[in-house]
DNA sequence: TTGTATGCGTTATCAC
DNA sequence: GTGATAACGCATACAA
């Protein structure tokens, strides 16, 4: 008979529930549910009353209950490589934004190139009953995705396909931006262009390199004038690439990098050696990470729009939910485009005759593309 | 009597549920629940059998059902300023990691300094019934948090307190790192040190500035030798600050910035003007964002550990859940510390006599602190 | 068109 | 210690 309440136990939420709303509006819970879910089968005057009650009571449906009964969690997964790589934050934000607009929550995880870590995150994804996951990792860690595939969870990947009927791959059109790059360099007068590649086990890097090879072939450059260095997409890899190209004879007058971090590494070596960029050597990156605007000089680079990527990924998921036939067009294209900043100029030999033109070009901080 | 199944309707999950496990193990669902939740009141041999069944069937409890009945969503909110600011990704990752270890999911949102956006995110947080939120935004947008406070949701903030009984503020010890900085500069021989502040409406910036003022006073510098410029924590703000200090007479030999982005802006101006850093002017940042290692030269800066911040935030939430008395020690301290890289050197006047020492110092890429 | 009743998968409250 | 059974808040099949 003690009045003692089990401390901190019955702290039931102060949230209004559907029954209260129903009473307040003088209708049944079912009707409230229908109104809240935008079903048109409710009489106008009733719907109005229900909305009023909802407003007045500040009712917000309990997502857990909703998920439980509908079998749909309204949670998505987003897997990225590493969160400290400046490429990804924008992607994450864009993806959260689209998802949010469609009333989805997103669980974000980064592999940090660590299998265990990825495995753990993926486990949490399936436990949370995600309705789909965007694998924005540019890597073929397909066996990591097995658990997802086994659960038949819709999957959107980049470049490399998961082996699942309910998956779809985003095809990045590397060729377009790289073509622009090479033509930009050719126009400036460059005839010896080095390429700093990423690790070739990864399909994405093979594609970037092949696009490069293809583009330089188009403008008639020989293999000896298009040396390739295999790096690892890190800053250090960039420094190594720079040192490599510096030793090449003849030395390339322009260096195209497979990502921005390597380009930044190249920039550093050049600065340290007193080699002026772009006067003595032009440098081009890839990705257009936020940072590229703040390097010294600002980096000319190929932009792969994170926003476009994120939107494409979400659209892909939608297609999968709609059950698009797997063999139709289950790939979505994502474009790329050159952003010209200040790390490219005519090669030294041609510089004087073009100096004026080049200087005027430098005025614009960001010449848009895409 | 048609066999036609409402297409795509009854796609009930293929997840094993607690009842199946119970049957498989020959016990009641309640027992399975107890085992799964680690209650010690279950007989050993039964527990063993249950675990076996769980393994064999690959059972994972449905979080939605769990949340529904327990009233605990196991979801946390994390609010940051802007995701493209390199300070935050690491913070986000660390926070997700701690949270994950404790079986919490986290919803991440960034304000982008946009009220509407923040408002929207916060609404989603309360709809999702988050059990707590970390407001890592360094800003006093307290009225934005009203909705959270009204719902009595535990809140952890930085520097500035939310007006809620269930909140707690992380006190960053700016003074420690800034003291180290000034002493480092003084040791190098600097007697004229400029400070590029962030916008002063924000308490965090006031604190940083005050810490600076305090530190320079300690080494006996006059106000005229410690000019202050009020910037805005952006790259552009940094360039403005640099231009300002360049015009000061006497010109400061060292510039301390309230954050790294401004320092990077300073670096840029100096490079453009042909003023060598650190030979002619030393530059120090604040935050130690990832990027600081890759600037030219690598930036000496004050590190505020994102990991420490994230852990502190989570600990704070735990304290709040435990119901620590609000007046006890409801503030948690976070340390800072100087990371010496290569953007600081003795001032030009003293340079020759110290050249050797300075060069040897340059060898280490990252001299740790904290 | 509206209301009633059932079930989603789990934990909590009882008896046993 | 263990097992029935009743919530949790909602959507929905079905009855009205």
Question: Layout of SSEs?
Answer:
Two copies of one chain form a homodimer.
Chain A: H1 18-25, H2 29-36, H3 44-57, H4 63-70, E1 75-80, H5 87-101, E2 105-110, H6 115-127, E3 132-136, H7 146-150, E4 155-158, E5 167-172, H8 174-188, E6 193-197, H9 203-218, E7 228-230, H10 235-247, E8 254-257, H11 260-272, E9 282-287, E10 300-304, H12 306-322, E11 331-334, E12 336-339, H13 348-361
Parallel strand pairs in A: 1-2, 1-3, 3-4, 4-5, 5-11, 6-7, 6-8, 8-9, 9-10
Antiparallel strand pairs in A: 10-12
Helix pairs in contact in A: 1-2, 1-3, 5-12, 8-9, 10-11
The structure holds a DNA duplex (16 and 16 nucleotides).
Chain pair sharing the greatest interface: A-B, 51 and 50 residues
Termini distance of chain A? 74 Å
Number of helices of chain A: 13
SSE sequence of chain A, one letter per element:
HHHHEHEHEHEEHEHEHEHEEHEEH
Query: Unreliable stretches of chain A, pLDDT < 50, 5 or more residues?
Result: 1-11, 355-370
**Helical proportion of chain A?**
40-55%
How much of the sequence lies in strands of chain A comes to 15-25%
CATH architectural designation of the largest domain in chain A:
3-Layer(aba) Sandwich
CATH T-level fold name of the largest domain in chain A = Rossmann fold
The global form of chain A is: elongated
The helix-and-strand class of chain A reads alpha/beta
CATH superfamily membership of the largest domain in chain A, which one? Response regulator
Mean pLDDT of chain A: 88
Order of the strands making up the biggest sheet of chain A: 2-1-3-4-5-11
Q: Largest sheet of chain A, if any?
A: 6 strands, parallel
State the CATH class of the largest domain in chain A. Alpha Beta
DSSP strand tally of chain A: 12
- Multimer state: homodimer
- Structurally, the number of domains of chain A stands at 3
